[in-house]
Amino acid sequence: MSESTVRFLKHHILLWIVFCVIFTLAALGIELLEGNKITTTEYYGLMNLGFVIIFLEFIGILIMYPMTFFPLTLLLNWQVRSNILKIVIYTVAGGASGLWIFQLLYGDFDNYFVTGYGLNVSTSIVIFSFAAFLYGGVDFLLRTITNK
Questions:
Q1: What Å distances lie between residue 32 and 26, 29, 69, 96, CA to CA?
Q2: What integer pLDDT is reported at residue 109 of this predicted model?
Q3: DSSP-derived 3-state class of residue 111
Q4: Looking at the whole model, is its pTM more than 0.85?
Q5: Averaged in consecutive runs of 10 residues, what is the pLDDT profile of the chain (148 residues)?
Q6: 112 with 142: CB under 8 angstroms?
Q7: Is residue 7 within 8 Å of 146, Cβ to Cβ?
Q8: What is the pLDDT of residue 148?
């Protein structure tokens, strides 16, 4: 393998690991901030399943990266020159993924859990936007380090 191929693989495998850690912590944050408001046994969250739910979220996030942020990262690194614009796009994509994950965990916005327990979707959007912002920063940092 050529040196550029090895550098490419190292960069994206490291980003995959970073993505899994950051987004699993974001999912844990959502579960702690919003999921703990649900006090019924109908919802199997952190209070009922414990850290099994963190493991399940980690597996889902592990699978989600190659389908979402990996192609986005390739596209941005190929097409977009501005690092600030890349980070803004990552942040917006993170907010959209936060919206999607909120719906996966708690159902639609008029669902019993959301209305009955006063869950707030904006918490998920902000946390996952911040997680994606961190991911964009790590991508920039890794590109800076590996291009020296």
A1: 10, 5, 24, 20
A2: 65
A3: coil
A4: yes
A5: 88 95 96 88 79 90 94 94 96 96 83 87 97 97 84
A6: no
A7: yes
A8: 59
- 3-state DSSP call for residue 13? helix
Rounded distance, CA 59 to CA 53, Å? 10
End-to-end CA distance of the chain: 20
| Torsion angle (degrees, nearest 10) of CA 105, 106, 108, 109 | -130
User: Could you tell me the residue range of the domain that residue 137 belongs to?
Assistant: 3-146
The greatest distance separating any two alpha carbons of the chain, rounded to the nearest whole angstrom, comes to 57
| Torsion-angle region of 45 (φ positive above 0: left; ψ -120 to 50: alpha; else: beta) | beta
Q: Give me the number of domains the chain comprises.
A: 1
Q: How high is the pLDDT of residue 115? A: 87
**Residue (of 104, 146, 108, 102) closest to 122 by Cα position:** 102
